[in-house]
Amino acid sequence: MDAEVKKRLLGEMLFARRFEERCYEAYVERKIGGFLHLYPGEEACAYGVLEAARPGYDYVMTSYRDHIHAIRCGVDPKVIMAELYSKVTGCCKGLGGSMHIFGVEHRFMGGYALVGGPFPLAAGIAKGIKMKGGDEISICFLGDAANNQGTFHESLNMAKVWELPVLYVCENNLYGIGTRIDRSTAVVDQYKRVSGYNIPSEQVDGQDIELVYKAAKKAVEHVRSGKGPYFLELMTYRYRGHSMSDSNAYRPKDEERMWSKRDPIIMLRDRLIEVGEITLDDYKQMDGDILEKIESEVIKFAEESPQPPLEILEKYTLGEDDPWVKGGVA
Amino acid sequence: MSEIMFWEAIRRAHDEEMARDPLVICMGEDIAIAGGTYKATNGLYDKYGPERVIDTPISENGYTGLGIGASYLGIRPVIEIMSVNFSWLAMDQIFNTAAKVRYMSGGQLTAPIVVRSPGGTAHQLGAQHSARMEKVFMGIAGLRVITPSSPRQVYGLLKSAIRCNDPVFINEHELMYNMKGEVPDDEFFMPLEGSELTRAGKDVTLFGYNISVHWCLQAADILARQHDIDAEVVDLYALSPLDRVGIAASVSKTHRAVIVEEAEPAVGVGAEVMAVINEECFFELDAPPVRVSALNVPIPYNHTLEKAAIPNAQDVVKSVLKMFGK
User: Fold this and answer.
1) Looking at the domain assignment, is residue B189 inside a domain?
2) Which residues contact B326 (CB under 8 A, 6 or more apart)?
3) What ipTM goes with this model?
4) Most Cβ neighbours (<10 Å): which of A56, A100, A321, B134?
């Protein structure tokens, strides 16, 4: 990974951080409703893995903590913020919300709010890729707690039986909502659980984007070359609660302090400063530019966009004008 | 026109659609090498191969979700769930994903899957293999629910369902796979919305669907021969969306309605059709609508008790006679 790539990734991760922090503020201001699950602390997972893949070409899906994966796939941050503001200019016209960001033209196949729901969907996308003969891969990002759903086991089993081109990325942030992993999960190391399905797997430090990238490159090559599924476990931490309705009182302060010292953005920043690629002032300038861009472009667009018209309320339930529905097909 | 069995009609629809479109696949437990529990996919594995005719593990929610994911890329999966009792396990993916993805993505994605599954009380299969669940499926926005009553219907409806861009649940019946019926030799499609006037009459409308259409027809025959009552039979093969216009048209003609369902009455097809009648044509009624339903019990194993738990043609006749004060 050369210095220019690292600098770009630093900027992208910092944008992701500031975007999510701005969502927090907008939620507190009641501009954003419903549930809001934020990504700060985990940025190196999405950016490291997708740097090794082909976002916009490969198919990506994830859970409800989905804004940043969508942005990395190419969905415009403006239309994501507009969706959070429930405006008609949002990526889902205000019908989806924070947990259901979709950007199908960028092959971001959605955020899903049932824990573990995307496991079989991602395997199905891989089945579709295989049938159509393309060299895309299907990438599914989910948290560690999703692995206690039946869909985890059912999907890993099918993915291996049919050798599907799917990469499962486990963002292990150690908590399932508010329950620490060792209190809910018999085997704490998630990559070990996959050995029961004869799927290759690896556990790496999810805070160091260079390590994530390196492991993801190997994983992506495995899957793209037709060798079947792969499971990558990234050890990470979310700074905020599970969602905005979470008091975040269940985590020891020492633990939070320990992880804050391993911040993925600060680690990469300091590394770049150390080798003389950037200065602290460069970083501050970058940060200022990002904050300004978020206000002047992203927030402004969301604020100024119109509400969805009442006419769309019933529009997307079932297909309209489908010839197989009303009859008259010769 | 040929007389073929219900399972043969399903098989023919699969075969024609798979021959036409290489993206049509079928999947389910024992459907490939074994040819399917009901023979509905018999021979397709040899013809289309393991990539398109897929024996799945016994993981209903998993393989249904896999089918939905594949459908995002234009694949047209026809998923057989061996019994509706097992489809409970796939409800997460059917309801939370297939039925909602079009809406919550603002129209960006659809899940054009077909799930076929037999429900109903058969031959002493016990409580966990005798459920009737169409009422659950028809209550979910974003799904189409179809319950064919004949080989002709299942052929034409399955063909349309495979081509439709919406998720379609087809509720079949364990006892109907060997039922024979006339099916045109030329390809045809039945619309996924509507109802069929199976027997014209002027005195009372008997609404049925799936197996209960046959009870209604038997009852209409008895009523005509023995009681001088001319019953109309309307086949509600589409349970969601329901044919509100067709229901109102028949009731406006006969002014009386009996809804016959194999399921328990609560929150069911009978209740829903009564609501539609109230909303669409209440002042056309000469008598309160009546529903003929199962008892509100899990289905027992004992044969006599099993038969007593669900309605039959005689129960329909009795309800009509009571309505006429006979």
Assistant:
1) no
2) B227
3) 0.97
4) B134
